[in-house]
Amino acid sequence: MAKVYLGPAGIPQFVVKAKSTLEAVKVVRELGLNAMEVEFVQGVRMSRDLAKQVGKAAQEYEVKLSVHAPYFINLCSDEVDKVEKSRQRLVDSLDRAYYMGAWVVVVHAAYYGKLGPKKCYEKVKEELEKAYRESGVSGVYIGVEVTARTNQFGSVEEAFSLAKELPFVTPVIDWGHLYARNNGSINYGEVLDLWAKEFGGAHMHTHFTSIRYRNGKFVDEHEPIERNMPPFEPLARELKNRDITITLICESPLLEKDALVMKEVLEKVGVRLA
């Protein structure tokens, strides 16, 4: 049976309102959840000292932490200054993740732009190597996220391939993004089987939310879990019979409220949190 870590992408706001990231760690545990993603999506504004305090709380309350790097990252921009600033945002995210004991920093790495997929892949690889070297950290993965848009770097194949080439990279499966990228279809078992084949028992980090269907296509706009696009229960059932360690970060607009819904579904099919 899967070993599951489950929690919100950010500070709880709906079931219990936490006032800070530090307080949020305690709230997450009190809610019966065991993971949280610290959101740096608008910028890395946390000091090293606060990162250490958050890490200490996470150890005390046994909450597994991850970090999401800023959205303003494009390692394949045709503007050198934007690439350098993007890399620095990733370096800063890795630094704070290290001090808080977070195990992975999730990143939307790039848009293909003028380079196209093949050259963008090589550029992303080069920039990730630079960022990891410049950060000076160890024990923290860069999580290359599977993205929703076909003009973005981040197909399953690209993320898995990079992780095979770079030992400090792990793929991050965003199930909603993959559903959108596949135009409204998803095969959870197929992805989990591929993971097992390529990475064995390595810890798998994933995001989950429903997404919106608008103007004839699925778009990367988060919706509550109840919208069932994609449905969560089939994933829960796939996890029941698999020997895998997996984090499920709820990116629904309802954050911890929907994380608790996900927990209920997991328990209904016979899966309990780690």
Automatic annotation (TrEMBL):
**Sequence ranges assigned to domain Xylose isomerase-like TIM barrel in this UniProt record:** 26-253
What EC number(s) would the UniProt record show? Answer: 3.1.21.2
Cofactor or coenzyme needed: Zn(2+)
Key word Nuclease present = yes
EC main group: hydrolase
Pfam family of the protein (one): AP_endonuc_2
Q: Which UniProt keywords apply?
A: DNA damage, DNA repair, Endonuclease, Hydrolase, Metal-binding, Nuclease, Zinc
Q: Which CDD domains match?
A: AP2Ec (cd00019)
Q: Name one GO molecular function term.
A: DNA binding
Any single GO BP term: base-excision repair
InterPro entries listed in its UniProt record: AP_endonuc_2 (IPR001719), AP_endonuc_F2_Zn_BS (IPR018246), Xyl_isomerase-like_sf (IPR036237), Xyl_isomerase-like_TIM-brl (IPR013022)
Q: Which family does it belong to?
A: Belongs to the AP endonuclease 2 family.
The protein's name? Endonuclease IV
Q: Which organism is it from?
A: Pyrobaculum oguniense (strain DSM 13380 / JCM 10595 / TE7)
